[in-house]
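Re: that chain you flagged

S.,

Sorry for the slow reply, it's been a week of failed gels. I finally had a moment to sit down with the sequence you sent. For the record, here it is as I used it:
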Amino acid sequence: MATLSVNVNKLATLRNSRGKHNPDVVKSVLDIISYGAQGITVHPRPDGRHIRKDDVYQIAGAIQVEFNIEGYPDRNLLNLVKDVKAAQCTMVPDPPHVITSNAGWAIEKNVDFLRDVITELHDVGIRTSLFIDPYNFSPKDLELLESTGTDRVELYTEAYAEAYGSADVARVLDVYKSVATSINELGIDLNAGHDLNLANLRHFVTAIPTIKEVSIGHALICDALQFGMTETIARYLACLR
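Prediction finished late last night. Pasting the structure tokens below so you have them in one place:
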């Protein structure tokens, strides 16, 4: 069964909109864990518009579950990830100005850079995951992926989520399944995330049962406005079962 890592960026966005401390992000994180989430994900950005550096330190000091830090692996992020000894670093090719992660790595163009940062993280015992778009992933990218040394790949699932409920979903899902199989055959594990929700999650992890972890934030927080956080976490875990 895939594990659920809750991205809490949106809680920090809500807090920051008033400039004070409500909601209390660390308390909310501990509540989410108590409701059954097996991991916490954050994506600190350079402008601090949601999760901030001090949040990362406070969360790291408060939780016992897996801590996954996402971001572009520049020197600031790498130093932060190593300093708090995150369990996993999910690397995305985001420029600072984007609203949310919206592209996967071009492995061929970045292979030397990725090898270096993955080696640096492995040297301190941190698991690595690379954000990959199955619709922009060439045979050469696949060939070079193993040489990066990454432990996992996170499948960028927006195309699947957009197709879900339409006549195209089977065709789109076949693309994901093919890429997932090829990556698993290299001995690399799979995560998934982006626009997964209560409607489409079960179908995805049933089709690709080797998914180890899903990272869900925006949809989950929106669902919590309707169902409450306790019930929302229970519903997502039920999808994964």
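What I noticed first: The longest strand covers residues 66-71.

Talk soon,
D.
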